[in-house]
Amino acid sequence: MLDESFREALPLVFEFLAVPDPKNPAPRIHPQVKQGQIYAFLRGLVRARSKSEPLVVLVDDLHWIDSASDAFLAEFVEALEGTRTLYLGNFRPEYKAAWMRKSSYQQIALNPLSPNEIDALVGDLIGTDPSTDGLIARIRERTGGNPFFIEETIQGLIETGRLQGIRGSLRLEGSVAALDLPAPVQAVLAARIDRLVDNEKRILQTAAVIGKTFLERVLLDVAGVLTDQLTATLSALRDKEFVYEERLFPEVEYTFKHPLTQEVALQSQLASRRRRVHAAVAAATERLYPDKLDENAALIANHWESAGDALQAARWNKRAAERAGVNSPIEAGRHWRKVLGLLENLHENEEKISLGLESRYGTCRAHR
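The structure corresponding to this sequence follows.
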């Protein structure tokens, strides 16, 4: 609808999006040539869209981006010159990219909240009851202006009964001087998780192994509970602001309120339990989504590796490499190298030799 000239690129685009049209397949060409054609399409798409309307694109948490997506993003940024498109990305300081050297790039540091901003946020959350006099100063001192830490600290005080009432009208039980506020935000989160009832804690920990976002269907399979029980538990965790619904269609998907929440929930369980759950998640993903095995190959490989099953992880990294090879030689090479690394400590057998040869050949092809 943007430009009739895009029609001839549709087979390639559909394949790239993992929804190929069997009646109109993409041409069989070298992966790097195919990647170049995808990038050319991207540049044309950005310019055509800009002529139609202004556009704002936001990419969240760039510090977790994979190499293939990062390369794709770099091409996207190159295509923005002279268009009516504003690209916004947020990231931790360790993330670096070549496009940051462009004259059109501007970096805005997200500084901690100022004392006045902290007072305004805490005041909005707890109110102005005389019993809370001095509490804002204590919270400001301990949280260092991090809004997430501020929210979690106040939520922790509510759950322990030290703060009572409703948002904006809370009262403090006891004196401010007697409050013991944990220093790091991880300690606040760990204490909140530890106060959960057993089934809520177990479900939250299981979800944390699945990932920052998790499908309700996978969690139900892995947790081994009845649907009504899981629904009630997730509702309780949502009310306590640990998770929230990210998507309802085509499947219900939840996400943790903050990456640190997932991280602390993950680390709050024994390593042996984490390994068992990772194996269960890998097996469940294979079983529940038989028509999406190629699409989920990298995810399944990661869970098998975390479960300590190097051979299964190598098999699935091979599958992920073969899929990535269609569109991203860089990503394919990464998965082939992963296969080689996983094979190092396995006993010599026919499958190991075969996987080793395939991964070396695949690595060479990816770097041609």
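The mean pLDDT is 90.
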